[in-house]
Amino acid sequence: MNGAWLGWTGEYSTKCASLDAIGWSAAAVNILLDITTILLPVPQLLQLNMSLQKKLLLLLMFSVGLL
């Protein structure tokens, strides 16, 4: 934290974090959480007592969240 205030003078030894690495890792975690959230109800939907066509249409409605 001191590097943000004292690093520019050259009197304080500091290292900068890669903003690209932070951004890509945050994006990867968010994508993983999105996919997990979308796939979470699928087993329960497949166990419902209804026709295969209705199950597929229901899964299609839930998959709109991918957009």
Description:
The protein is mostly helical and 67 residues long. The protein has one domain (18-66). The protein is built from four helices and no strands. The chain has helices at residues 2-6, 19-39, 42-46, 52-63. It starts with a helix and ends with a helix.
Chain-averaged pLDDT: 85
The overall strand count is 0
Residue share in helix:
55-70%
Percent range for β-strand residues:
under 5%
- Structural class by SSE content: mainly alpha
Sheet with the most strands?
A: none
List segments where confidence is low: pLDDT < 50 over at least 5 consecutive residues. none
Overall outline? rod-shaped
Number of helices: 4
Number of domains: 1
Q: Kindly report how far apart the N and C termini lie.
A: 39 Å
Structural key phrases:
67 residues; mainly alpha; 4 helices
Layout of secondary structure:
Layout: H1 2-6, H2 19-39, H3 42-46, H4 52-63
Characterize this entry briefly.
It contains four helices and no strands. The protein is mainly alpha-helical. The protein is rod-shaped and about 70 Å long.
